[in-house]
Specification:
The complex is a heterodimer of chains A (about 475) and B (about 260). With about 475 residues, chain A is α/β, with parallel strands linked by helices. Helix content of chain A is about 25%, strand content about 35%. Classes of the chains: A alpha/beta (about 475), B alpha/beta (about 260). Bound molecules: adenosine-5'-diphosphate and magnesium ion.
Chain lengths: ~475, ~260
């Protein structure tokens, strides 16, 4: 390999700055999973009876299911009995920020997410989930004034049980797939968002997930309901300490958009990716789906996936309402031994439905990056349109990029366009930038940022800069 | 300013430059001419610091310093600029974004603070006029979908913004119609200064009607086979490069300075 090529390999070695562990007393279940564990979680959360029943049903279905292995991913069999299914900082759930353990506040501060409202990013409300529980949610009063509910889902189950009951499992059924079934049985927390009719949510909503304890799985569940004519923009972020063991994260996210409603859902995923040899890292196996229930509704997924050892997720949109719109914008970066198999499903059911898919895969070192997407047009979906574009960028010579676009169209009026490219950062591009004075690191990050531009511009302003920085860090390292 | 002494360069084991000597004084403009494949771009790229080029002998001094010891970004920060023969496309990166990064890299290198947004905008708006381009040009992705002429003008525009001490123009005139070439030549002439030297690589004499060089060198088969003043270019125009080939065939390896 050329000298420049080798330098790029050195360049993409990064430090994981979020890899610290917070010493905090926690109440952690012993490893293992059976019905008693499911019951114990439900009891801990003081859930209504229907929820326990729902969990148990999901658990029984899960027991009869097989872990799926069709993705372009290689990882050892997960031992579900070696995982602890609940861990929470000791003590009562704090009623206000003053009661939150300073160590926790410090943890989030260190992660760049100050929870004190006066320090927080203006215009962004945060729900902070630490292992299995939400430890704080900011700006609740301001949101309540607008009629918006933004709270931990465990709390919603107590405060608004009927609302949760109406929607939970409505988009991702309890036994939708292996990991969704597992999540339905053991989910411990996550965020609940309800935007009433005609309300434009006055702030960005954001949940920050942190796995702290060892051998603990995180199974969060997020449910967002946007009533007629409402709008919400929501962002999730996630990090975990550096450990030699793998950690399991199996989340479910459900979105419901009614007539003329819009949901913009953004993810900046930065779970611990494991070390250069592929030791440790999070297994990020997630089910995300949104339903455009009403006419003219719109759901956009934007994801920046830079972390995790293994990522498998396909944020999808079921376009039921006529004229509804689904969008998927993705940047997935795999470095070192990271593997990602990600993409989307756009299911066109209503008439004149439209979907857009923009996927940018970046593979560096020995990373493996797979785009897998399905565009499905059912019989009655007249005049459906889809545009897909999947670009892969390779850095170095030992990584891989794969693209699997699937198409099922039962309606001849459908118009579908698919484009795909694979490119490398060329020595010519690097030399060009360096001849203009940029050092190698800045040159690589400039080129990669350019490659991701169409996705970054979909992120809420407050986070676009963050995402760019994160990408830079992910590509950062000692230049030789 | 620049002093090249007995420079030998190999690419993939093959000798491409076979002993180049060249001195460029402060404020001088030197033209390098020669047939295709003679090593003109190789010389330009070696001076700008391209990797994979194996310098097997010789040395290059730039402002008294060992130029070849510096990585390309440092050379750039010290004022070496190459207008590429084939400028690359960088999708998604706007012209101004790259230029601002370049200006700030230079400033950082010299321990200065980053340029203010307003000041930068004023600078690029002024310079973009020089190459007769519209302001939209600034927001377009670097060289992406540019015509050949636009790419070349973009190089001159960048040069104007970055104000190099030593500018190397590699066939900036190739593929340009006469109007575009005049714009390029005007840009170059406007940048001529006492303390700025230029090496203008060209295949044709045409450009030298507009940029009048102090010296002309003829490069053939990795050697400078002839040099002289601006009249040498005219001579070449009349005779073509055929005589060089004849001479090389008659006395291989015996090219003289
Ligand atoms: N990257 C490269 N790899 C191999 N050979 C090269 C490379 N670049 C140039 N050469 C060879 O070097 C010689 C000189 O090329 P070049 O410097 O581009 O000439 P010119 O610019 O005068 O047309 C040619 O024979 C060319 O094939
Ligand atoms: Mg050339």
């Amino acid at each position: 390999m050329s000298a420049v090529g080798q330098d790029i390999e050195k360049l993409v070695k990064r430090e994981y700055k979020e890899g610290f562990y917070t010493e905090i007393d926690s109440d952690t279940f012993p490893p293992g999973l059976d019905e008693n564990v499911v019951r114990a979680i439900s009891r801990k959360k003081e859930e209504p009876e229907f929820m326990l029943e729902w969990r148990l049903k999901a658990f029984r279905r899960w027991q009869r299911m097989e872990e799926p292995r069709w993705a372009h991913l290689r990882f050892p069999k997960i031992d579900y009995q070696s995982i602890s299914y609940f861990s929470a900082p000791k003590g009562e759930r704090p009623k206000s920020l003053d009661e939150v353990d300073p160590k926790l506040l410090e943890t989030y501060e260190k992660l760049g997410i100050p929870l004190e409202e006066q320090k927080a990013l203006a215009g962004v409300a945060v729900d902070a989930v630490f292992d299995s529980v939400s430890v704080a949610t900011t700006f609740r009063e301001k949101l309540a004034d607008a009629g918006v509910i933004f709270c931990p889902i465990s709390e919603a189950l107590q405060e608004y049980p009927e609302l949760v009951r109406e929607y939970i499992g409505g988009v991702v059924p309890a036994a939708d797939n292996y990991f969704a079934a597992l999540n339905s049985a053991v989910f411990s927390d996550g965020s609940f968002v309800y935007i009433p009719k005609g309300v434009r949510c006055p702030m960005e909503l954001s949940t920050y997930f942190r796995i702290n304890e060892m051998n603990t799985g995180q199974f969060e569940r997020t449910l967002i309901v946007a009533e007629e004519g409402s709008y919400v923009s929501y962002l999730e972020g996630c990090t975990a300490p550096m450990r030699d063991e793998n950690q399991l994260h199996a989340a479910v996210v459900e979105l419901v958009a009614k007539e003329n409603a819009q949901i913009k859902y953004s993810t900046v995923q930065n779970w611990y990716p494991g070390d250069e040899q592929g030791r440790g890292g999070v297994y990020n196996l997630v089910t995300k789906r949104g339903a455009c229930r009403g006419a003219n509704s719109k759901i956009s997924w934007t994801q920046i996936e830079t972390g995790s050892a293994i990522t498998q997720k396909y944020p999808s949109v079921v376009l039921e309402g006529d004229n509804s719109i689904g969008e998927f914008y993705s940047v997935a970066l795999t470095n070192n031994m990271q593997q990602a198999d990600t993409g989307t499903k756009m299911i066109h059911v209503g008439k004149n439905t439209r979907s857009t898919i923009i996927s940018k895969g970046i593979s560096a070192s020995r990373g493996q990056n797979t785009y897998r997407g399905l565009v499905k047009i059912v019989k009655g979906a007249d005049n459906a349109r889809n545009y897909s574009r999947c670009d892969s960028l390779l850095i170095g010579n030992h990584c891989g990029a794969h693209t699997f676009p699937y198409l099922e169209s039962k309606n001849p009026s459908a118009r579908i366009e698919h484009e795909a490219t694979t490119s490398k950062i060329s020595e010519d591009q690097l030399f060009y930038c360096m001849q203009r004075g940029l050092n190698e690191e800045d040159a690589v990050s400039l080129i990669v940022n350019g490659f991701c531009k169409e996705v970054f511009r979909e992120l809420p302003m407050e986070f676009a800069v963050e995402a760019r920085k994160l990408l830079e860090i992910s590509l950062e390292g000692a230049v030789g | 300013m620049l002093s090249i002494d007995n420079l030998h360069v190999r690419i993939d084991g093959k000798a491409i430059l076979k002993g180049i000597d060249l001195d460029v004084g402060s404020g001088e403009v030197h033209a390098i001419m020669g047939p295709n494949g003679s090593g003109k771009s190789t010389l330009a790229n070696v001076l700008a610091g391209r990797e994979n080029f194996d310098v097997t002998q010789g040395e290059v001094k730039y402002l008294g310093e060992d130029l070849l010891a510096l990585p390309s970004d440092e050379r750039a920060c010290k004022g070496v600029f190459l207008a590429f023969q084939y400028p690359v496309e960088i999708p998604g990166v706007s012209n101004v974004y790259l230029l601002k990064a370049a200006v700030n890299a230079r400033r950082k290198y010299h321990g200065e603070k980053a340029i203010a947004a307003g000041e930068f905008l004023k600078l690029v708006k002024e310079k973009v006029k020089m190459v007769d381009m519209k302001e939209e040009f600034l927001q377009r992705a670097v060289n992406e979908g540019f015509s050949g002429g636009e790419k070349k003008r973009n190089e001159i525009f960048q040069m104007a913004v970055l104000e190099p001490t030593l500018a190397i123009l590699d066939e900036t005139d190739s593929g340009l119609d006469i109007d575009a070439m005049k714009i390029v030549a005007d840009g170059v002439n406007a940048l001529r200064r006492e303390d700025r030297s230029m090496i203008v690589v060209t295949h044709y004499q045409r450009l030298l009607d507009y940029i009048v060089p102090d010296r002309v060198h003829v490069l053939a088969d990795g050697r400078i086979v002839k040099f002289g003043d601006k009249n040498l270019a005219l001579e070449l125009e009349k005779e073509g490069y055929g005589w060089i080939r004849d001479r090389l065939e008659r006395e291989p390896g015996a090219a003289t300075r």
